[in-house]
């Protein structure tokens, strides 16, 4: 009885309530997504989600009782094993939605790349904790980058671009909290944004603008692109030489800094343009203009915005949605679950979901500030980055303000792997939270 009392004394009821509420909303929406236009339930997805949700809650509670600090000695081995599983999945996994990213027997399957997010958070937290007293922040940052690129490369090889993108916000949040100089973090962030911009502009010119734009010509003409890469690379090298001879002149440092961002982004965007598949290119096109292909790639966004808009203030009522019941929304139980919820529960229902997520994020920030050690603080920071990115990208996607990436809305979207991953993360948050009291 003493143990139970102590556990309840430090139990994080805020996180628990928010998670249970979101999972409940998710099950209700998944059930609604299985109703057809005749009012018949043609799907058993909600039953599976209830099972995953129930077992996920048990898993979450079990991890909250585990002292996360004792896991630190096993984290490197867990990371190596997880990478080996990703390699195995690449060669022997199932094809689902164009990616070999699933392992399983018969109807049962898991997505290892989802669980790899948790392992990556633990391993990067372990490394940042071990090097917290290091005076060489540049080396610390570069090794952290390599830790991120290993799972990202293995997931991109499947290929699964959406899941791979999640590792960037996790990395940025953890390195920022770890005290890595902001200029290093901004280098990665700006390089990523510039790469996306340089990749999208040629697509915009050819598919949306339908006329030649002078400043985009550099990206569409291979010779001009090569000249610009050579020029920016040369400027960067000359600036590095200037830093060597004039150590106290910071201008050379910043010139080389931005030259490296520009040069690297031009190179990466070239390869991105070659690697992107046709359906991924179309996702970028319809993000810019959904009506460029209203019956094809733009259909999802158009129907999703229609569903959200038709919900008005209080919604059409539970099980009264038309977009989902008439099957206008593909992937409606996974990627576009928020569209169903907004149509049936309206603006008020959407705000409830926002409030629950906002409470989880605020609670996570509180845990970061009050963690008893660096390892726990880093774990919470990684979870914060993951949760925030999933929420912003998925909700932005269904509203048409973000490109379609196939990233689920955690706790609500149908899928056992993503739901368990999210609940494992909450279990670790609870463990970090309770250990500050010595439990």
Question: What this model shows, in words?
Answer:
- The protein is mainly alpha-helical and 439 residues long.
- The chain has one domain.
- The chain has 17 helices and three strands.
- The chain has helices spanning 2-10, 13-33, 45-65, 75-92, 112-130, 137-156, 161-165, 167-177, 182-209, 217-220, 222-245, 250-275, 278-288, 299-310, 337-370, 374-399, 416-435; strands at residues 94-96, 99-105, 108-110.
- The protein has a three-stranded antiparallel sheet with strand order 1-2-3, covered by helices on one side.
- Helix 15 (337-370) packs antiparallel against helix 16 and helix 16 packs antiparallel against helix 17 (416-435).
- The relative contact order is 0.15.
Topology:
Layout: H1 2-10, H2 13-33, H3 45-65, H4 75-92, E1 94-96, E2 99-105, E3 108-110, H5 112-130, H6 137-156, H7 161-165, H8 167-177, H9 182-209, H10 217-220, H11 222-245, H12 250-275, H13 278-288, H14 299-310, H15 337-370, H16 374-399, H17 416-435
Antiparallel strand pairs: 1-2, 2-3
Helix pairs in contact: 2-3, 2-15, 3-17, 4-5, 4-6, 5-6, 5-8, 5-16, 5-17, 6-8, 8-9, 8-16, 9-12, 9-13, 11-12, 14-15, 15-16, 16-17
| Series of secondary-structure elements, N-terminal to C-terminal | HHHHEEEHHHHHHHHHHHHH
Residue-averaged pLDDT, rounded? 86
Distance between the termini: 15 Å
- Low-confidence parts lasting 5 or more residues at pLDDT below 50? none
For the largest beta-sheet, the strand count, sense and barrel status come to: 3 strands, antiparallel
Q: Widest sheet: strand order?
A: 1-2-3
Q: What structural class do helix, strand and pairing data support? A: mainly alpha
Contiguous helical run count: 17
Shape, principal axes of CA atoms: globular
């Amino acid at each position: 009885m003493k143990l139970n009392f102590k556990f309840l004394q430090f139990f994080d009821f805020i996180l628990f309530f928010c998670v249970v509420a979101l999972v409940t909303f998710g099950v209700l929406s998944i059930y609604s997504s299985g109703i057809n236009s005749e009012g018949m339930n043609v799907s058993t997805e909600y039953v599976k989600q209830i099972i995953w949700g129930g077992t996920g809650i048990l898993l979450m509670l079990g991890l909250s009782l585990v002292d996360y600090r004792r896991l630190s000695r096993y984290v490197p081995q867990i990371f190596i094993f997880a990478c080996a599983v990703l390699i195995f999945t690449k060669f022997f996994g199932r094809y689902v939605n164009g990616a070999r990213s699933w392992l399983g027997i018969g109807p049962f399957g898991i997505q290892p790349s989802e669980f790899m997010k948790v392992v990556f958070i633990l391993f990067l937290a372990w490394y940042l904790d071990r090097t917290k007293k290091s005076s060489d922040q540049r080396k610390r940052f570069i090794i952290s980058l390599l830790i991120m690129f290993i799972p990202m490369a293995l997931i991109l090889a499947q290929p699964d671009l959406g899941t791979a993108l999640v590792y960037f916000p996790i990395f940025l949040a953890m390195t920022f909290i770890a005290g890595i100089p902001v200029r290093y973090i901004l280098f990665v962030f700006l390089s990523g944004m510039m790469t996306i911009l340089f990749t999208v502009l040629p697509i915009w010119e050819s598919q949306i603008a339908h006329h030649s734009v002078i400043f985009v010509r550099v990206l569409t003409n291979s010779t001009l692109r090569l000249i610009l890469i050579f020029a920016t690379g040369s400027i960067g090298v000359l600036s590095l030489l200037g830093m060597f001879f004039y150590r106290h002149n910071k201008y050379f440092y910043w010139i080389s800094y931005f030259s490296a961002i520009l040069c690297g982004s031009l190179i990466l965007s070239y390869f991105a343009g070659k690697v992107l598949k046709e359906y991924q290119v179309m996702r970028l096109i319809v993000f810019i203009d959904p009506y460029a292909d209203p019956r094809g790639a733009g259909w999802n966004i158009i129907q999703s915005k229609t569903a959200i808009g038709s919900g008005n203030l209080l919604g059409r009522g539970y099980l009264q949605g038309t977009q989902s019941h008439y099957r206008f929304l593909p992937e409606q139980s996974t990627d576009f679950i928020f569209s169903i919820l907004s149509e049936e529960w309206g603006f008020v229902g959407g705000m409830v979901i926002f409030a629950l997520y906002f409470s989880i994020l605020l609670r996570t920030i509180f845990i970061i500030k009050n963690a008893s050690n660096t390892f726990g603080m880093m774990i919470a920071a990684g979870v914060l980055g993951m949760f925030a990115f999933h929420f912003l990208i998925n909700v932005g996607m269904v509203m048409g303000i973000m490109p379609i990436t196939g990233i689920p809305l955690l706790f609500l979207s149908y899928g056992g792997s993503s739901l368990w991953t999210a609940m494992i993360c909450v279990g670790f948050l609870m463990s970090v939270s309770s250990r500050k009291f010595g439990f």
